[in-house]
Give the backbone structure.
Amino acid sequence: MANASDYPLSTHNLEDPAAGADGEPSEERLLSVNFCLATLVNFFNSFGSQMMNAIVPVYVLSIGGNNAEAGVVGGAAAITALLLRPLVGWASDVWKRRPLVLIGNSGIGLASVVYALSNSIRMLTFGRVVQGLGISCYSTASNAYIVDIAPSRRRAEAIGLFAATNSLGRIVGPAVGFYIVSLFGYHRLFNLVTALVVTAGLVSLLTRERSRPPNSQRPAWSPRTGIVAVDALPIAWTSFCLGLAFGSVSTFIAIFASSRGIDNPGLYFAVQAIALLISRTFSGRLADKCGRAAAIIPGAIVMALALVVLPLAHDLAGFIVCGALMGLGFGAAQPASMALLADLVGAERQGVGLATYFMGYDGGIFLGSVAFGVVSELWGFGVMWPLAAVWTLLGLLGLLGARRSGVSRSA
């Protein structure tokens, strides 16, 4: 009969070679200087990126675009990041994490400059492509860096805390972004984003990477090993479905809220981000102690519930409830699924593994933005939101594939 150690959804059997007799890491604490600096960088990047992500769809409408065009512009960053993930993941394994983090910062900052100069849908789309390049480099390399420096027995907790700083950016970013636009206009907002990203790049220079073992082998690129991590594909499917649902909210919630008479759609993002912060702070520890499924399954169900009840929200209170549910669900499911993926791939392939995960997520963001934009145009938001809920639950099928893959954790 199989036991818990046969399955990657349970983590009790996984030993941390750096752990002492009391179970705590003897060589490296979770809250190291490098971890704190990396989370600070993550906050600055998140603050700037979330302001842009919330504002750009509305900016499309302000220059004469429609919902479908807003979806295309919103999805352009995701499809660009998706196409670049294989190269970025492999490069982060054979090169280093920090240079790619700096390249990512530069791409996000350059995108804000392009937005400031834009006066057409085509130019905005180009800006999103540039932002997608930055997102691809930064998110892949920064998360691989966190996996590198975190004690393996606290991997999900580390990913959750790192992601929680992203939630802080979500709390202040959209609401501040809409407020700045209302007072000073779009161009001042994009200038602020540029300043934030430059600050993030300067802080990144202070971090240090873990030295490679002298006998470590850098993986040679090949079509079979350099594009995707095959053992990560089941969780990439889960990531795809989470991205599809979350992308539909990120792209269209401001438009939907405005159609219901909500004056400041940024309040939805703020409530969602507070819930994300709470969930990500505590759910990682749950996933480390009780297994990854203990956080992923309830998280996906709560996300689906948030999407199902969203058509019933006609006032600010209803939007706040839906935002809180979405944040709690996504905040539990995403860090645990990322930790599960890190369990499945070897230490020398974390970059390719996480690139595979984000390829799924980016693909979901892109399809959610484009396809659901068309659905909303043809049948309305009342059909679109429940359809996104169905796809969220389909993501749980990825856990069945992961259960057959076994655990490989050499870090």
User: Anything to note?
Assistant: Residues 31-210+228-403 form a domain with the Growth Hormone; Chain: A; fold (CATH 1.20.1250.20). The first helix runs from residue 33 to 62. Residues 30 and 89 are 24 Å apart (CA to CA).
